[in-house]
Structures are given as C-alpha cells and as structure tokens.
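Title: Request for sanity check on Acetyltransferase prediction

Description:
We are preparing a figure and want to confirm that the structure record we downloaded matches what your pipeline produces today. Could someone re-run it with the sequence below and paste the raw structure tokens into this thread? We only need the token string, no images.
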Amino acid sequence: MTTIAVTTWSLEQTAPTDLLPAVAPGGDVRVVRSEVPSPEFSRFLYTSVGGDILWTDQLHWSYARWLEHLERPGVETWVAYDRGTPAGYVELEAQDDGVVEIAHFGLLPAFRGRRIGGHLLSYGTARAWDLADRWAGLAPTKRVWLHTCSKDGEHAMANYQRRGFKLFDTKVEEEAVAAAPGPWAGAFPV
C-alpha cells in the first residue's frame, strides 16, 4: 500500500469580532439554509465538492446514518447558489460548551475561482456565531473551528486566514493513497 504524508491544520475564531468578511461576489449568488434534512442532497454536496480532493470518510454512510447526522440539533447546511445552481456549501455542527465546528466547506470545481468561496465562508462563519439563536437549548457560541489539510484546494488555508481564523494545531500523518471518488471520471475542469 502506498502512503503519503498529509498535513492537517486546525484553525479557530474565539470571538465574533474575529470574523473578517469577504466582499460578496457580483451577480446572482445567494446563500440559503437547507432546512429539510436530505441525505440525498447532503451526499450530493459532499461528493461533488470533495470528489476531487479525496473526501471519502462519509462515502460508506448509509441513508439512515446520513439522516441521523443531519437531524442532530445544531447541524446546519448552508448552500451557495449561483443563478439557481448549487455552487458549494458549508456544514455547521454544534459541539459541547458553545463550540461550533465548520465540518465541511467547499465549492464544486466549476465554481472555484469566482470569489464565491470567501463570501460563503464569511456567511457560514457568521451563522456559526449565531447558531444558538436558531436552536433552543444550545449554548451561545464561544468558539468556531475547522480543519483543512494538504489535500484541500491550494487557496483553502489563505481563505481561512483572510476570514480571521488563527492556526492552533498542526499534525502530519501518513495516509493510504486513494483514487478520487468522483462524481465521475473527467468531471473536473483541468
């Protein structure tokens, strides 16, 4: 089995004032909460955004497992649409003691490089800070965190830092080399 060294960086914000919002892109780009838990839609977003950057951890999840995850209090999916077409998403996941993880964030390959990512990350981070306003019983957000790795897009780390996220941990681990899962061969722009 062939392996590669993968560096994972963890970043955080510890106050809402840490957020440095991006300028909204021109055109008809909207960010909308996907309020109805839909395993089909969430799996579509996960594979479409992460297919070329080796997101594989959730590919084996059953329909029931996806639904269980999506129905948890404090799990939200916010989707960016460019002229009505899904362009990317951010998934928030409430954790204990007022901590919110940005569990997934990214754009479909065809929408990268259009200034949508900074806007979506800004919007999603702001929603992480006000998550408790939408969920009775959740503690107010005290910290928002995420991780990115050396397999992610080349601009990921810079985008997080431009939005005010600060590095708090770095790990390097060996991982088995895996083929990109799709969505299908040749689907990604070169």
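Thanks, this matches our download. The helical segments are 39-50, 63-70, 116-129, 156-162.
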